[in-house]
Design goal:
The protein is mostly helical. It has nine helices and no strands. The protein has a single domain, classed as dinb family like domain (Four Helix Bundle (Hemerythrin (Met), subunit A)).
């Protein structure tokens, strides 16, 4: 399964994932928003603000493609992304929740428009490494991964089978470049082939 090639299915899974996320954070108080997440240096507020702005970014790309325009996720790149996250992370819980709900709803509306239109201009890159028709799959990854990062009880064991079937293959493909040494590559390869134990000292670089 390659969800990047099936934006309609990926959009459906994304809608379900966003609904689960919103249920998880619906009752959060201000103290929880300011508490550390599982991501170093980020609070729960940082993660939720990122998820809201990421929804806006994907909506921006897909809306642009529907108009025939190749639009980037963030007009000013990584600096804009980081500034928006920092600026929004310390807001009250209710404000962050309302922002996330609004951004998710807008994205779902845009995804529905994309599906109705047959995902035109799906090859537009907008400066990214995947076409705009891959936005639903990549948004799905953001929601599923960061839902776990919140540390609110949602774990990898809760990931849906369809998501795992797609993203496990995607992540496995990144392993060779993320292993630090030739020895680590060989040990990991032997483990994958059933020829040895997984070396607990091996580490994977960020993806």
């Amino acid at each position: 399964m390659n969800l990047e090639n099936d934006p309609e299915q990926a959009a459906r899974l994304c809608v379900e994932a966003q609904a689960r996320l919103l249920r998880s954070v619906a009752q959060l108080l201000d103290e929880a928003i300011s508490s550390p997440s599982n991501l170093p240096g980020w609070t729960v507020g940082h993660v939720l603000t990122h998820l809201a702005r990421n929804a806006d970014a994907h909506a921006r790309r897909v809306s642009g493609a529907l108009r025939g325009e190749d639009v980037p996720k963030y007009a000013n790149g990584a600096e804009q992304r980081q500034a928006e996250i920092e600026d929004g992370s310390s807001r009250p819980s209710r404000e962050i929740q309302a922002d996330l709900e609004k951004s998710c709803a807008r994205l779902e509306e845009v995804f529905a428009q994309g599906t109705a239109a047959g995902w035109p201009n799906g090859h537009f890159l907008g400066g990214a490494h995947y076409g705009v028709s891959g936005c639903p799959a990549h948004r799905l990854r953001e929601v599923e991964m960061h839902h776990v990062d919140l540390g609110l009880g949602y774990t990898p064991q809760d990931w849906p089978d369809d998501y795992v079937a797609w993203d496990l293959q995607e992540l496995l493909a990144t392993v060779p470049e993320r292993l630090g040494s030739a020895g680590e590559q060989r040990s990991f390869m032997a483990w994958l082939a059933g020829r040895g134990p997984l070396d607990a000292t091996s580490t994977l670089g960020p993806w």
